[in-house]
Amino acid sequence: MTRWRDPAPDERESGERSWEVVRRAYAERLTAPRRRDRRPLLALVAAVVVLAAALSPPGLAVWGSLRDAVTSEDHLLSLPTRGRVLVNAQSGVWVVDGDGSKRFLDGYADASWSPHGLYLAAARGNELVAMEPNGHVHWELARARPIGMPRWSYEGFRIAYFAGRALRVVNGDGTGDRLVSPNALGSGLPTLAWRPGTHELLYTDNRARLVLRDVDTNRILWARASRSTEDVTWSDDGQRVFIADSHPRVLDASGRLVAAFGTGTVLPAAFVPHSRALALVRNTNRSSTVYIYSGPRYMRHRSVFSGAGSFGGIAWSPDARWLLVDWRGADQWLFIRSAAVRRIAVRNIGNTFDSGPEHYASLGGWCCP
Amino acid sequence: MAGSDRGERAWVRGAQHGSVADLEALFRHHWPRAYRAAYLVVHDSAAAEDIAQEAFLAAVRSLDRFDRRRPFAPWLHRIVVNRAIDWSRARALRREAGDAALGTIAGAPAPGNPHARSLASALAELPPEQRAVIVLRHLLEYTPGEIAELTGLPRGTVNSRLRRGLDHLAERLGEDLE
């Protein structure tokens, strides 16, 4: 069957021409913030409401059965405990308050909480923006390259972020912006995480290494080989870090191995607040299971929840009593009480955050008491 | 299915974060198969270029929504193959209306290319839906089950189209393609 692998006529030349077209479209996408057009959805909702009102009891029944399918009905009416949840959606950022009220911050992306939940850092094209959760902007910083993954240090005095392939740090008040690494975005995924209680930043560099660097002294504290790193996350005490790559593992603060979790994808993962126990998701045979691993070497583990399809993200409530599982396969958020297993399922999440039935909105964190 | 590895996820994620280099890596990795698949269905290089290019533009437009945990290739190939089928049907209608020359001129094959000599011309004798199934199976290496999922066809229909198409190709090319 070698002929299937032979190039078709004009394959290479057409590829060069098309790459130029695609590259230009991509550049325009980066410079033009997207705006949502809700008009078609509103028209549909209005039509259904009129129809339902015209038909009394049967109409209400029809309305009830249709509403999940064709409207953006919001089932997320409250959070089970204190705090606010951040959601990075297709066209902006949502802030969900404890009473279920939501604020949409149009055109922002990749938002993260400041340590006490008073501010957000977010990307808007080539701008880094620090703002209050109500959308009031405190400061903006424009760079030549698109901004990604802004993350606050433990006390809010530093924000690390990507500008194109460069890793940079700016003070929490928007001053003192400086370069940490000119080419930190290698062939792996962009990953960075502040070590709590320090100004030490763990990231993957363009040599497929995990690097822990003190950004104040610009000194590299350690570096370890790590191929295909997808995520890194620290325990609250800064003594354990989970590395999600082809050999998922927990390291101590010096980069020494504490525990390994075999091979395969074990994402998402999140340390239990104020603890070194770790919640992580394993994907097998088209289903996903949340486990909680504990003990000095993470030898103890228990299954918390299994479901078909993938889990897009997990987040602990600030009081560590609830685990939020973004169950994409079922278009649900599942709040699981961590002590006595109790579940609250919130459906229609894709429409709640205006990102469609196969929702792509991702959890940005659950903060703060 | 090829192309659903970690490198691909890294490119998608990088492109979502503004890396032109990662977008280019993704493009260059997938262009040959996307273009070739389109070409083998439409048998017209200009149309194949438009179809594959439009699929990548759709990918750029949807980049923020794309779930990195899902493989990129099936999503791209679904767009390519469906558009190629649509284009082939439209061309058939144009031919009925007397506009056959456009496609023929644009699709003039390069001499010496094996696609031009045999495979593409043998495929061109099949209906576009049958071509698409053969291309998905033998160029893009999807299983019949995956093809059924990609095209929305019943598994039995996929199998019968594959069987009939392969019989035809074997007869025309003088060899068993399986």
Gist of the model:
The complex is a heterodimer of chains A (369) and B (178). Chain A is mainly β and 369 residues long.
Computed CA radius of gyration of chain B, to the nearest angstrom? 17 Å
Strand arrangement within the widest β-sheet of chain A reads 3-2-1-28
Number of domains of chain B: 1
**Mean pLDDT level of chain A:** 82
Give the helix level of chain A as a range of percent.
Answer: 10-25%
What's the average pLDDT of chain B? 76
Shape of chain A: globular
Largest interface: A-B, 50 and 49 residues
Description:
The complex is a heterodimer of chains A (369) and B (178). Chain A is mainly β and 369 residues long. Chain A contains 4 helices and 28 strands. In chain A, the strands form 7 sheets. Chain A has a 4-stranded antiparallel β-sheet, with no helix packed on it. Chain A has a 4-stranded antiparallel β-sheet with strand order 4-5-6-7, with no helix packed on it. The longest helix of chain A is centred in the N-terminal third of the chain and has 21 residues, at 11-31. With 178 residues, chain B is mostly helical. Chain B has a single domain, classed as PhyR, sigma-like (SL) domain (Butyryl-CoA Dehydrogenase, subunit A, domain 3), CATH 1.20.140. Helices cover 74% and strands 0% of the residues of chain B. Mean pLDDT of chain B is 76; it is low at 95-117. The chains are: A mainly beta (369), B mainly alpha (178). At the A-B interface, helix 1 and strand 8 of A face helix 1, helix 2, helix 3 and helix 6 of B.
